[in-house]
Amino acid sequence: MKEKISFLKNRIDLISPNKNIVPITTVIDSNEKLNIGGCSIEDLVRKYDSPLYILDEITLRNSCRAYKKALEKYYPGVSLPIYASKANSSLFMSNLVASEGFGLDAVSEGELLTALKGGVPNEKIVFHGNNKSDKEIEFAIKNQIKVIVDNDHDLSRLEEISDSLKFDLEIMIRFTPGIECHTHDYIRTGSFDSKFGFGIESLNKLFGVIIKTKHLKLIGLHAHIGSQIFELDPHKDLGEIMVNVMLQAKEFGHNIKELNVGGGLGIKYTQEDDPPSIDEWIKTVSESVKEACKKNKLDLPVLMCEPGRSIVSTAGVTIYKIGSFKEIPGIRTYLSVDGGMSDNPRPITYQSNYSACLVNNPLSCNSKNKYTVAGKHCESGDVLFKELELGNCKTGDLICVFGTGAYNNSMSSNYNRIPKPAALLVSNGEAEIIQKRESPHDLLKYDVLPDRFIKQS
Ligand SMILES: Cc1ncc(COP(=O)(O)O)c(C=O)c1O
To answer: Model confidence over 321-331: pLDDT tens digits?
Structure first.
């Protein structure tokens, strides 16, 4: 069934990588083997072992540039794309997005530190979170990082800490706009059941409270309506709602200069997925904000957006080595790989689907070879693919899973004390390590056996 893997041969969208399944540098080389970023994947595994995370630099930069270009086209002069670092946080990713002129959104001191050390300017970082600790708030304030206030508790901690440090602080508030998105449909609701953000109905009271604070200056609004969204209408509605809230804030004396419409643009994980392009998404939000501002005679705010998945997901692949096979006649054949839910928790958490191929024979595909691809963890649900058609394969062969750049490495764990994989950056035929492979010994580093137990043993 060659059509099943035609995603490897289809014309690739160079401008909007989220519309491809594979990184844009993917080729089948003259030996009929998989090659990404000018590197033979087989050679990389020979050198760096598996499982292996790989990021393709050109795909990453093309995604960033597509956002920049579209913003310049549809919202000239006054915009800032911000990378949602939860998708994949590292010194490398911080550095790459900074070099493309992006800001960064962080939700913990760890992500903030990674951003600063990676070279993101503090004035381009925003700090999110529904339960920030005092220590995290202090860290943000001392580094003059803009804080996105999520709830009343957050506001009172910010007020107290900024008063005690005598620091003025620019804040944005996050609210729930009553738009509920699923991948393929959305609904408008009066209130939105979410742990994040202020309810839209509570904003008047909130604006009244903030205007009386000594050190907090409300300069922006934020809303994020979901992730892996394929429709444009929810973001069209969002732009208009945000401008209305901007108007509301103005009545209380707040000068809202920034609107952050969050992230959420979907990517193509499988042949069935058909997300809008980055250009279409930016056009939609830009036009919606511009129209609403014009209607209400408001100056255009700085437009911010926070893409995560659509920046990094398609640039990333994970390579696994095939180990055991188990055939249950008449039911299924399990094929086990050397990673699984610890390096990619999305299938077991969200029943997410991916595309994959054999590294040494990418175009091979035999409808008789349907495998349930299992991870190596001690968990029956540790299954990466319920049914994957592959060509003939055997123990030792390599599988490449596409679209794993986002929410894989950043959500990985050490379940079963399995060390995290190495991560490589590939570009122009060169591979560089951006995350060292952990060893089982590394995992003992933070364990402490109290002295009396050592004495007993
Ligand atoms: C506040 C916020 N901004 C941005 C994002 C990034 O979303 P995505 O990766 O879908 O673009 C998320 C993801 O959940 C989020 O919670």
So the answer is: 999 999 999 99
